[in-house]
Amino acid sequence: MNETVRFPVAATEVDVVVVGAGQAGLSSAYHLTRAGLGHVVLDHAPRPGGAWQFRWPSLTYGKVHGMHALPGMELTGADPLRPSSEVIGEYFAAYEARFDLRVRRPVDVSAVRGGADGRLLVETSAGTWSARALINATGTWDRPFWPRYPGQETFRGRQLHTANYPGPEEFAGARVIVAGGGTSAVQHLLEIAPVAARTTWVTRRPPAFRDGSFGEAQGRAAVALVDERVRRGLPPLSVVSVTGLPLTEAVRAGLDSGVLARRPMFERITSTGAAWADGDRVDADVILWATGFRAAVDHLAPLRLREPGGGIRLDGTRAVRDERIHLVGYGPSASTIGANRAGGAAVRRIRRLLAGDRPAVGARAPSI
User: Fold this and answer.
1) Which residues pair with 199 in a beta bridge?
2) CB neighbourhood size of 65 (10 A)
């Protein structure tokens, strides 16, 4: 049973609440506006740009995997040498203005609960909204994953995560261990190695490099693997985790130079670095955890959507345990193109759901 609030709560009524204003949230808001469904978009970030606004300055637009345009407005003429945080932040801001999306920010969503008459109560730092459906588009950036290893608390150096990565300059002259087998780890190593005293790359599994093009068929297969886990109620893997690391010219150079010479994950952390089971040790000043993120869905906990496997089981974008809740940008729709498509799919299903209910509150108002 979902946790239901039974006492009176002063709330603003709306058809749909969208939580998050990144790619998935803005796509959803666009489709909600076109469908004529009253909605509000709540975003905790201080300005437009979604998670991109927090990316490090050296991650230029030319280095990103690919940014699929939002529906109805292309991103053209972007300087590949500008920071991606600036390029995409400006694009999102222009998009919000063109389609009058009127995102409310900064607003923190603390909890979503069942309310009276089958509605949802969305509790936030700016008050409570009462909604007939909710699109969750919170992504993962707010939940960096920090692994735990014996001795971690004894390390006298600095530990930080990709979420706090400041760029390579702060690592000048330092001995740096980069932990993680994804794209961020590779990017960090390639940036840090030229200025650091030494870099060491450690991963739990040997990295899988992908040579050649990555076509539509391979993309569908990768998404299908992620989708299969979500349908089983397991925590989703990122799409990138099943596609492999692209062998770009920079990556090939890193392999040739030894910068991307990977070592198995250490057994424990010492006060001065890391140690392996065979007795080998590496001294370090910094441990940089490029170990990924988890879905930011804690505010949905009162609805009890999780399955025994730890994830939220979806049918498309709809939560199986509550048809009012749609997750966009979660699991198979975590890519930019996937988020666009999922936003439209979620709105179509919500429109059908609300059409079978009592007349929508404020249905003629595109946003509140």
Assistant:
1) 176
2) 11
What's the CA gap between 235 and 223, in Å, rounded? 14
Residue type, 25: G
Confidence band, pLDDT 50/70/90 cuts, at residue 238: low
Tell me the whole-structure pTM to 2 decimals.
Answer: 0.86
- CA 192 to mean position of chain CA atoms: 24
Half-sphere exposure of 288 (CA within 13 A, CB side): 30
For residues 206 and 211, give the distance between their C-alpha atoms in angstroms, rounded to a whole number: 16
| C-alpha to C-alpha distance for 344 and 31, rounded to whole angstroms | 6
Mean pLDDT throughout 206-225?
68
DSSP letters of 72-111? T----S--TTSBHHHHHHHHHHHHHHHTT---B-S--EEE
Where on the phi/psi map is residue 34: left (φ > 0), alpha (ψ -120 to 50), or beta?
Answer: alpha
Residue where the block lists tokens 């080998």: 280
Peptide bond into 46 cis (omega under 30): no
Return the sign of the alpha-carbon dihedral for residues 229, 230, 234, 235: positive
Q: Rounded CA gap, 98 and 5, in Å?
A: 38
